[in-house]
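Thread title: Can someone regenerate the structure for this chain?

I was given the following input by a collaborator and told the matching structure tokens would be attached. They weren't. Posting the sequence so someone can regenerate them.
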Amino acid sequence: MTEFTVFIDTGAFLGRCLRSDQHHSDAARGWKALEKAGRECYTSNFVLDETFTLLGRRASYTFAAERARSFYSSKLLIIGRPAPEDEIAAIGYFEKYADQRVSFTDCVSFVLMRKLGIERAFSFDYHFAAAGFTLWP
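Best answer:
Regenerated them for you:
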């Protein structure tokens, strides 16, 4: 992975799409930097599932579907799909961070990031830092 490789978490997608999101300004700056660099970014189908559901609830399902089409057609976004053994490995993180109430989606993200050698998460979620990743930007 390159120095600039990042894993995109739900908060970065929400911040990009929703002007009312508390992280909108930071997310917009982060996305602009990624697009300027022209580097591929990673996420997972779990993260996108969570993102589209929340966009549907916070904006509208039509808006969420439009965003879904846009993200799925992106040439810079690589969407990882965990193997069954990745999901099983995520259970270990789920137990380890139970006191912090980490989502299973985040735990799957941790497994994929370690598997891919990605150290940075474009995220506003401190759980990624607790799991040993660097929050970006």
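The chain has one domain: 6-136.
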